[in-house]
Here is the input.
Amino acid sequence: MASNSVNFSFVSWNVRGLGDADKCKLVKDSHLTARVDIACLQESKLRTITSSKSRSFLPPHLTDFHCAEAVGSRGGIITAWNARAFTASAYIARRHTLTSFFTSTSSDTVFAITNVYAPADHRDSRSFLDDLSTIAAQVPGN
Here is the structure.
């Protein structure tokens, strides 16, 4: 029986802001060194992300990304991937989560990754957990 698993490198990193050029270079260089296939970044503090801006913190092989924009100077979630290794079929962006659905280009492996930046205010915990339950129900399989 053939295996339909796939191996890849993955990182999840609370970057605490990508407004500073030095921070962007650190993030980019770290992803290059680690040869990351999928990067989940939290607390980007970016309301919009242009192609030019994404090139400042993502290495050339992480060409595709989804984002949940920051609200003011809070939050901001980015999931970036190597388009040679994965295709993304869909995504669900919420205030505190970003779920991306992937298919490996080298196998028939399909999976989802939920990138989470949880609320610091515990008064929002109940709605955050309800949101996670709703997302979990929409993710079949891996």
